[in-house]
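ligand=zinc ion
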Amino acid sequence: MNKCDRCRDREATILFTDDWQEWLCNRCFNKMISEEIGVTLETMPEEIEVNDHSGTRRNFTVQQRLYPNGIFIDATEGTEFGYQFAVHGELECNQTELFEKLKDKVQRGVAKRFTKVGEYPGGQKYSAIIDDEVVGHIDYDEMSSSTPMIVIDGQPYTWEQLGEMVNSFEGFQFQMKFYDKTDDVE
Ligand SMILES: [Zn+2]
């Protein structure tokens, strides 16, 4: 673990570069920006807990980030390749409302399921797309330098696994559209 250059306590996650360079933890980074632009981050819950489409409890870690162009809040599941959600607000926004917006986004995001596991007559399992759409996010696949990891329903699919699921739509048209992490998928 790389420690923060300022507090020398928490994990450094941000490499800050200006006339100088230093590794900062999220809290020290926010403090620095806060002093610079005169906006203070309000205290908010550090976790969000919701039930997903199957009634399974899912735990999210909340992280606030202050930038000169606004306030970002992330909700990330503790597991590797889990669900991730984020919202963005103006610097002068109501931060309580921004948090509620994130919570609402998490709840809506885990409420619908896009994939299912089926079983061939021989007992072999396969993954399939339930209706005619999938929503997820694109992550890094450390096993593959040329293709990403696709996270749907809070679980990872390799590009090849996604291809197998898409196979059943042969002959269909499709639309591929990308959204910023903080946008709402229409
Ligand atoms: Zn620090």
